[in-house]
Amino acid sequence: MASLELVLPRSFYVQDSVTVARELVGKLLVRRLEGVDLIGRIVEVEAYGGENDPASHAFRGVTDRNRLMFGVGGFAYVYFTYGKHWCFNVTTGPEGVAGAVLARALEPLRGIEVMQKNRGVKRLRDLTNGPGKLTEALGIRGELNGVDLTKEGELFICKSEEKGNFEVVVGKRVGIRFGLQKPWRFYIKDNKFVSRT
């Protein structure tokens, strides 16, 4: 399903985070884990800006944690949150312009039995319908922080070989305080794998 010519190039990621977020919907996230390809279609994402976005990790400037967000786009930004979940993001923009896109939900396509084992969940609908669920299902943890997503390896994103017939819905980000809301959440309309908000 995934081949080198289909891996998204650096030029895709150096766009602004909102553009990248919208265009990531329908793409394939590939995690190679112990010789097995775990693949899911990206069905829900959220964009985060830089120092102009109070909801972003980059809002207060460069730190050890968010340094990747200020580099050139196309790298995995993986962090631990709420003391229990890993979150997977892709960095965006040119060098020095912070941005990232959070992967919120996937539609599982390949390696489903491994995903079920990783999550301890059988019901397909509940496997990857949230940012912490998808990282657990695909075995995405802190050691993948900084991985170059433009190279075929442990973790990368591909174009789908199938033409997507779906409508992308634009909405407000989840869990953001009132007054900081931006219409930077994008998801596939009526897709049953979109997270419950």
Strand/helix succession: HHEEEEEHHEEE
Specify the CATH homologous superfamily. Answer: Methylpurine-DNA glycosylase (MPG)
Number of helices: 4
Mean pLDDT: 91
The geometry reads as globular
Query: How much β-strand is present in the residues?
Result: 25-35%
**What does the main sheet amount to?**
8 strands, antiparallel
Structure class: alpha+beta
**Ends distance:** 31 Å
The residue ranges in which pLDDT falls below 50 over 5 or more consecutive positions are none
CATH class category name: Alpha Beta
Output the CATH topology: 3-methyladenine DNA Glycosylase, Chain A
Total E-strand runs: 8
Tell me the number of structural domains: 1
Helix content: 10-25%
Task: State Rg.
Answer: 15 Å
CATH hierarchy: architecture? Roll
